Amino acid sequence: MAIDAFDPWSAEFVAHPYPAYAALREQSPVVHFEPSDQWLVSRYADVNALLRDRRLGRTFTHRFGHEEFGQPAPNPAYEPFHTLNDHGLLDLEGPDHTRIRRLVSKAFTPRMVESLRPTVQRLAGELVDGLLADGGGDLIAKVAEPLPVAVIAEMLGVPESDRHLLRPWSSDITGMFELNPDEETARRAVTASLEFSAYLRELIRRRREQPGADLISALAQAAEDGQVLSEQEMISTCVLLLNAGHEATVNTTGNGWWALLRNPGELARLRGAVDELLPTAIEELMRYDTPLQMFERWVLEDIEVGGVWIPRGAEVALLFGSANRDPERFADPDRLDLGRADNPHITFGAGIHFCLGAPLARLELTESYGALLRKAPGLTLVREPEWNPGYVIRGLKELLVEV
Questions:
Q1: What's the whole-model pTM score?
Q2: CB distance 399 to 385 below 8 Å
């Protein structure tokens, strides 16, 4: 059975999930996965439609109580994590989501993002210069990670001296997004939630007293102007922006360079036409090995998907990695084609939860890849990398290169 090949806790599967996806799409495109009690949805058309279907939601608590919905109440020991997560933009529905997204989206308009280009370009160039000066090293630690962390921290107004705290907190919190996280993962997430929240609460207080030209100051001002943004919503929104603002970009950079180094013909093609090919190359690298392999939604009303009835109270797991390799939507999907023109990948999601930071992510990726391609044309792989154990958020431990 196709479902037998789906093993998100297996290192081998995490490294090579695409054959299992192909089997699922062909044999069991909508199927119940008992170990996580979820319905796996693997075809592009179904995933794309369900992302926009209002009969599903990231939460159910805006309409149902836990008992009414047939789900257990959250473990009270994990309350700090759930309080932080449940008040964030990604896990809100209805008017709360609309209200907060309207406030935050002003910082991510194309015009606002484009104004950041000189800063992002300078930072990317400096990071690549550092890699060159060292003769190489871990591309993820030296380039992929510090760039988006610096950019989103600068936007929010996190002092440079504190930015080293962000990635460890983020990593511990996002561990809870994996399937069936264990007690140790939950403990780290709770600790990080408490520490991150306390840090932001103090930073918000300082920005209220001495506002600056940053997003935390703007949100604090909006709350004071009566736009009904609670302190918890501010904290949760800032954590989400910091987490989402770099986790996906870091892994897209690492996964993408690993894909290029495995496809030397396409890498040579890109190096020979950076300006012309880079826009489509970025989109193709996001499609080819998306960092977010799964996006979960709750079924708020009985629904039929691909001829299969899924009852209210169930959870669906939308397999982004599979949808982005569906031959029904992408010609020759397992081939990396940096000039692919017809490429409506769903790496950023769709519907009301479409990634707010997509324009910023594209800018960071363009400048990061551009700087590496132009400044380090001789970049080569030192050894084959290993994948992190996480499946939902999928990325490399390191990517060692020489220049």
A1: 0.93
A2: yes
